[in-house]
Design goal:
Pathway: Amino-acid degradation; L-valine degradation. The chain has 14 helices and eleven strands. α1 runs parallel beside α3. The protein is elongated and about 70 Å long.
Length: 351
C-alpha cells in the first residue's frame, strides 16, 4: 500500500507540473475564445481521479470548462484544489454543481454505488440537476443499462432548452494513460443519439475520436469487444515471437516479417512485447506502466460474463481469461499485459 501511495503521489506531482506549465487561467468561463469546441454545457463534474481520470480533468480545465471533482482519495482532491479546481465530499454534491457529470471508476460495483448509493448522483427526490451523465468506466453492458433506466426515471430540477429528462451515456475509452494525457482518447459511446451530439464537444476536449455505437450499453459492449481482440492479438503475437526464438529466428527479424506481412497488428508494430525490440513501450521498461494485467483479467471476465448471457461461444475468451488469471496469480498483476511474452511463453529479451 505504501508503494502504491508513493506512486500515486508521484503521478500527481507530475500532473501538477503539467497544470502549472500549461497555459490556462483558473476557472475562466467557457467561451469560443477559450476552447475550440462550442457547447451549451459549461459546468462539468468529474468523479474518479485515478491515472486516467486525473488527466482527463486536466484537459477539461484546459478547454475552459468549470470543473468540480470528487474522489475517495483525499490527497488527490487536495492536489486539485491547490490548483484551483473545486472539489466536493460526495457525488451528490458534485451533481448539485454540475450540468454534466463524468465518471471514470474501476468496476461495475463502484459505478453503481456512485450513481445509486448513499449520497450518490441519483440520491434525493427523483429530481437531479445534471442533464447529462457520462460513464467512461469499463463495465458490463447490463449494469450500464440498469443505471440508464434509473436515470431516465428522474426529472431535471432545471430544464435546459427542450430537455425535460436527464440522459445517460456510456462512453468508455481506448488509448491508455498516454492518450488521456495528450487528449487523444477514443470514446465508444452508447445511449440516445441526441445526447451523444450534445456531449460531443465535451468528449472532443479529452479525445481525438468519438464513435457513436448505438443504444444504451453499446459503448460498454464495444469496449469489451475491443479489449478482447487486444488480448487475443497480444497472446498470438507473443506466442509467435517466442516460438520464433525457439526456432532460431530473432524477435527483431520476425517482427520485421510480421509487420510487412499478413501477421501485422497493433501488438506487433505499436506495442511489441519483446524487450529490446521497440523503444517507448512497456516491454522496454520491464513491463512497468501501460495496461496492467489485472485490468486485462477484469475486462476478460466482463467479456466472458457478457458472452455467457448472450449465449455466445467463447473459446478464445476462456483461453485468454485463464492465461491472465495465471499472470495475476503468479504475481504479475501490476505488470503490463504484454508481459505474457516473458512470464507465460518464457520469451527472451532481444540483445
Amino acid at each position: 500500500m505504501a508503494i502504491r501511495r508513493a506512486q500515486a503521489l508521484l503521478c500527481l506531482s507530475k500532473l501538477k507540473t503539467s497544470f502549472v506549465l500549461g497555459s490556462y487561467s483558473r476557472f475562466h468561463r467557457f467561451s469560443s475564445s477559450s476552447s475550440h469546441h462550442s457547447t451549451q454545457f459549461q459546468n462539468v463534474g468529474f468523479i474518479g481521479l485515478g491515472n486516467m481520470g486525473s488527466r482527463m480533468v486536466n484537459n477539461l480545465v484546459k478547454a475552459g470548462f468549470n470543473v468540480t471533482v470528487h474522489d475517495i482519495n483525499r490527497d488527490v482532491m487536495k492536489m486539485f484544489t491547490e490548483m484551483g479546481v473545486s472539489a466536493r465530499e460526495t457525488p451528490y454534491e458534485v451533481a448539485q454543481d454540475s450540468q454534466v457529470v463524468i465518471t471514470m471508476l474501476p468496476s461495475s460495483s463502484h459505478v453503481m454505488d456512485v450513481y445509486t448509493g448513499t449520497n450518490g448522483l441519483l440520491h434525493g427526490d427523483n429530481s437531479i440537476r445534471p442533464a447529462l451523465l457520462i460513464d467512461s468506466s469499463t463495465i458490463d453492458p447490463q449494469t450500464t443499462r440498469k443505471i440508464s433506466i434509473a436515470v431516465s426515471n428522474c426529472n431535471l430540477t432545471e430544464k435546459i432548452d427542450n430537455w425535460e429528462k436527464p440522459f445517460m451515456l456510456d462512453a468508455p475509452v481506448s488509448g491508455g494513460v498516454l492518450a488521456a494525457e495528450a487528449g487523444t482518447l477514443t470514446f465508444m459511446v452508447g445511449g440516445p443519439e441526441n445526447a451523444y451530439l450534445a456531449a460531443k464537444p465535451i468528449l472532443e476536449s479529452m479525445g481525438r475520436t468519438s464513435i457513436y455505437c448505438g443504444g444504451s450499453g453499446n459503448g460498454s459492449a464495444a469496449k469489451i469487444c475491443n479489449n478482447l481482440a487486444m488480448a487475443v492479438s497480444m497472446l498470438g503475437t507473443s506466442e509467435a515471437l517466442a516460438l520464433g526464438q525457439s526456432l532460431g529466428i530473432s524477435a527483431t527479424t520476425l517482427t520485421q516479417v510480421l509487420n510487412t506481412s499478413s501477421g501485422r497488428c497493433w501488438s506487433s508494430d505499436k506495442y511489441n512485447p519483446v524487450p529490446g525490440v521497440m523503444e517507448g513501450v512497456p516491454s522496454s521498461r520491464d513491463y512497468n506502466g501501460g495496461f496492467a494485467s489485472k485490468l486485462m483479467a477484469k475486462d476478460l471476465n466482463l467479456a466472458a460474463a457478457s458472452a455467457e448471457e448472450a449465449g455466445h461461444k467463447s473459446a478464445l475468451i476462456s483461453t485468454a481469461q485463464e492465461i491472465y488469471k495465471k499472470m495475476c496469480e503468479d504475481g504479475h498483476e501490476t505488470k503490463d499485459f504484454s508481459c505474457v511474452f516473458r512470464h507465460f511463453y518464457n520469451g527472451k529479451d532481444e540483445v
